[in-house]
């Protein structure tokens, strides 16, 4: 093993666990002076010490790898390639050192740039309605997305508590119709909540009134959807203090962000109740992460299963680190959850060569893709459409494509790798994070020139690539 100095990463890990150097040393069976020397890059990380750390703290060995910073690196590249704030060439090696040695500074720079970009993009809104400007700047969806990303899309204490709650109800063992009745009984007996089902041509999906203790759900929801909404509201009652502590500790900048975070945490908890971690993890591993099969076993929809698969990051019992996305036909990404470093650009649209857009051509069919990002990493992607139907003829419904991707080194654990030669680079489709950030040359699908490259156009010369 080459000499690897990981001082900043070890400090980060220690601070996340709220440990002193002496406590960390005791946990690892090392002397405090030895730990101090590693943290100050006097001693390199050795294989035996790495193994002790991974065993004691449940972190993947790639936690100490530069490759683990791929998303932060990509976000920082967007910042330095914004021509409106930077016109000085910055060496990528220097940028990589900044991300690795001073990740908090890099994240602060990214956050500052987002604030700046928001001011720039929403200036007209602020001028028209100054009182709404501060709320608009908060970018609730980005704050909440980063809240989950910083935790690898896994909330340990909440997941454990909801697992116990779900197992006590029989989740994963009982048919969904029986489980839903158990949830209704628990809601009524434990919290005095009555569940009412309504019909009619309206936009209601569900509503809980804390004053009357009535939870209303629409009759057009499937059995699994009703159970999910009920589990989410039960979780927000059962784990109210835990949820509020998570929201309070994050320091969200607006009430909209806090409410969106509560909704997101409630949905996470609902999935943890209906699909208790250990049983769900075991079933996923035994059946090759087959989403449609898991959907039948646990009685919930394709999207819900795919989303839950992206949360399996419990220390000592990790699943495949997936990235989960949901997009519409126009390329708008309405959900993005990741237990990996994969990053898609916030500047412009995503890559049109990505398999997720093929899914709209044949609704309901699973598509697969062996893809390669510009940094050389190979991924296996699956994509399928899901529909959210309205109850009446002529009413506008919703259709999305749901994508689930992992690095190809994990792909053999899934049924979706069957028949694909993921070891052959020639079989990979070259995709990117989005045209504005993609470094590929000669791409016929490029819609915009890359932000970090000078545009070279000759009126008397053209190629298949527009830029």
TrEMBL record:
Keywords: DNA-binding, Repressor, Transcription, Transcription regulation. SMART domains: HTH_XRE. Residues 10-64 form the HTH cro/C1-type domain. InterPro entries: Cro/C1-type_HTH (IPR001387), HTH_RamB (IPR026281), IrrE_HExxH (IPR010359), Lambda_DNA-bd_dom_sf (IPR010982), ScfR_C (IPR018653), TransReg_Diox_bact_type (IPR050807). GO terms for molecular function: DNA binding; DNA-binding transcription factor activity. GO terms for cellular component: cytosol. It comes from the Bacteria. PROSITE patterns: HTH_CROC1. Belongs to the short-chain fatty acyl-CoA assimilation regulator (ScfR) family. NCBIfam families: Reg_Aceta_RamB. This is Acetate metabolism transcriptional regulator RamB.
């Amino acid at each position: 093993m080459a000499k690897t100095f990981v001082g900043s990463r070890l400090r980060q890990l220690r601070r996340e666990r709220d440990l002193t150097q002496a406590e960390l040393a005791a946990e690892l069976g090392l002397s405090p002076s030895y730990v101090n020397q590693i943290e100050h890059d006097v001693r390199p990380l050795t294989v035996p010490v790495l193994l002790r750390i991974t065993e004691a703290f449940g972190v993947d060995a790639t936690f100490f790898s530069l490759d683990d910073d791929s998303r932060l690196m990509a976000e920082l590249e967007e910042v330095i390639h914004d021509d409106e704030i930077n016109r000085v060439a910055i060496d990528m090696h220097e940028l990589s050192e900044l991300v690795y040695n001073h990740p908090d500074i890099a994240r602060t720079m990214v956050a500052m740039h987002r604030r700046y970009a928001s001011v720039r993009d929403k200036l007209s809104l602020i001028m028209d309605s100054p009182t709404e400007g501060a709320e608009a700047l908060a970018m609730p969806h980005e704050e909440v997305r980063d809240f989950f990303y910083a935790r690898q899309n896994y909330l340990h204490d909440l997941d454990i508590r909801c697992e116990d709650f779900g197992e006590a109800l029989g989740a994963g063992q009982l048919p969904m119709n029986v489980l839903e009745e158990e949830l209704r009984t628990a809601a009524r007996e434990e919290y005095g909540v009555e569940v009412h089902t309504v019909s009619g041509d309206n936009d209601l999906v569900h509503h809980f009134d804390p004053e009357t203790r009535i939870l209303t759900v629409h009759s057009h929801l499937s059995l699994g959807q009703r159970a999910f909404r009920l589990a989410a509201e039960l979780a927000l009652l059962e784990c109210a203090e835990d949820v509020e502590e998570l929201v309070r500790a994050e320091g969200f900048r607006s009430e909209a962000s806090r409410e969106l975070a509560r909704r997101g945490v409630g949905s996470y908890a609902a999935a943890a109740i209906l699909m208790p971690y250990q049983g769900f993890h075991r079933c996923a591993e035994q059946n090759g992460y087959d989403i449609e099969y898991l959907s039948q076993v646990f009685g919930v929809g394709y999207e819900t299963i795919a989303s839950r698969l992206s949360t399996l990051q419990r220390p000592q019992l990790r699943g495949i680190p997936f990235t989960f996305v949901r997009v519409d036909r126009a390329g708008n990404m309405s959900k993005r959850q990741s237990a990996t470093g994969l990053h898609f650009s916030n500047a412009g649209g995503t890559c049109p060569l990505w398999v997720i857009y093929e899914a709209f051509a044949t609704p309901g069919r699973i598509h697969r893709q062996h893809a390669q990002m510009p940094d050389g990493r190979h991924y296996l992607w699956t994509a399928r459409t899901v529909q959210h139907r309205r109850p009446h003829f002529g009413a506008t419904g919703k259709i999305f494509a749901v994508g689930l991707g992992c690095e190809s080194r994990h792909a053999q654990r899934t049924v979706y790798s069957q028949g694909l030669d993921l070891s052959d680079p020639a079989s990979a489709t070259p995709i990117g994070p989005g045209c504005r950030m993609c470094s590929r040359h000669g791409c016929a699908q490029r819609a915009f020139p890359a932000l970090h490259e000078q545009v070279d156009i000759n009126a008397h010369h053209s190629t298949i690539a527009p830029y």
